[in-house]
Amino acid sequence: MTAGTGPVELAERVHLIGIGGAGMNGIARIMLARGLTVSGSDAKDSRAVMALRALGAEVSVGHDAAHLPPAPATVVVSSAIRESNPELAGARERGLPVVHRAQALAALTAGRRLACVAGTAGKTSTTSMLTVALQHCGLDPSFAIGGDLTSGAGAHEGSGEVFVAEADESDGSFLAFSPAVAVVTNVEPDHLDHYGTPAAYEAVFRDFARCITPGGALVTCVDDPGAAALAADAEAAGVRVLRYGRSADTQATLLDYQPDGTGSRTLLRHGGVEHRLRLAVPGEHMAMNALGALLAGLELGATVEGMLEGLAVFDGVRRRFEFRGRAKGVAVYDDYAHHPAKVAAQLRAARDVLADGPGRLVVAFQPHLYSRTRDFAADFGTALGLADEVVVLEVYGAREDPEPGVNGGLVADAVPLPAEHVHYVPRWADVPAVVAGLARPGDLVITMGAGDVTVLGPEILLQLEASS
After folding, report:
1. Would the pLDDT of 3 be above 70?
2. Averaged pLDDT score across all residues of the chain
3. Is 70 exceeded by the pLDDT of residue 381?
4. Active-site residue (options: 123, 131, 342, 454)
5. Is 124 labeled as catalytic in the residue annotation?
6. 44 given a catalytic annotation
7. Catalytically annotated residue among 109, 124, 131, 250
8. Residue 123 known to be catalytic
9. Which listed residue (166, 169, 188, 322) is catalytic?
């Protein structure tokens, strides 16, 4: 489905196709809190589906036009839902209004002071950091995040005037929002299956910056060339821009970053004053995300002291370097990284956790989407070269059909490590034994990717426990 960008009005009854998805179930939670009658369907039962049922949603497993509610009702879909889906086809036949997920979320933000976080990488973590810090400051924001907080759900209807939303650029649908504050973490080519060219991908961020309401602000990390170019373009168009990064010419400046166990210690400067910040999550990229969240929070009415205290208590997002367990001296983590920049940033953070110890970094990476694998196989290989042992799974196709000649082997072949340290394992069920066989006491293992690789962590731990 092509994403629309215009304003919409939601009926009192709303049906969400694919309601269990990371973005959709959060929207459903907020709708339920607003008193709307919510129904939906998903391909399978899940923890998210069961939670929505407990909150009062009527959720069916499987897709069938019979699941559609009577009119008047609004049907919500994401770009992952194909036109052949029987519920979407049935809604169109019956004349029920069909809106994109982002349009539905934008409708829920009406009347609130909206902060949107976008970017190729880091938007979920930055949105989460901003949300937790604002909560600590007592602002009680509503929020919709593309992942669950370690401390709770990824969406909530708050009592405050602020709404924090993760803005997904993958299909251009984030142009539905009119934020007072927009954070753009970085702009690196992605989603070329939709945009076609890097230039078109960069252009949609320029359009997004022009969606900021008069008097609002764009917050960007100017260490990233794409975001720096966006900042210059937006400023030339009359948008107020706040910059962060290592450069002295920024409103929030990273002066020093030091790994500290599974967290970090950061020295930053804001308003001419130096501040120390201890984060509970590792990686210089997370310290940068904290600077973006800080500037956004100040724009929304929080204090510097309150934001720094709130950022310090942030303990992560599920599937973002999430600890899954330890067995036979091997620590196992799981991460959602599925773009070369994300993979590289998280592997560097994992190196920080290993610090000067004797352990090695072992990654089991599952490429996500045939188009992304085709377009960025070489870049994925380079990023994975930051590990000591690399296991590459078969491509997780998600919404795409297979492409001839596109498979995980393309990524494995591009990893710049000796061949004995790179392992292409196309049979999913073989991966836990292979990874466990590679790992040694003191090693750190990461399962990585946006697909079902996430469920392998417990299996790897069982294989480690069973090893002699």
Report:
1. no
2. 91
3. yes
4. 123
5. yes
6. no
7. 124
8. yes
9. 166
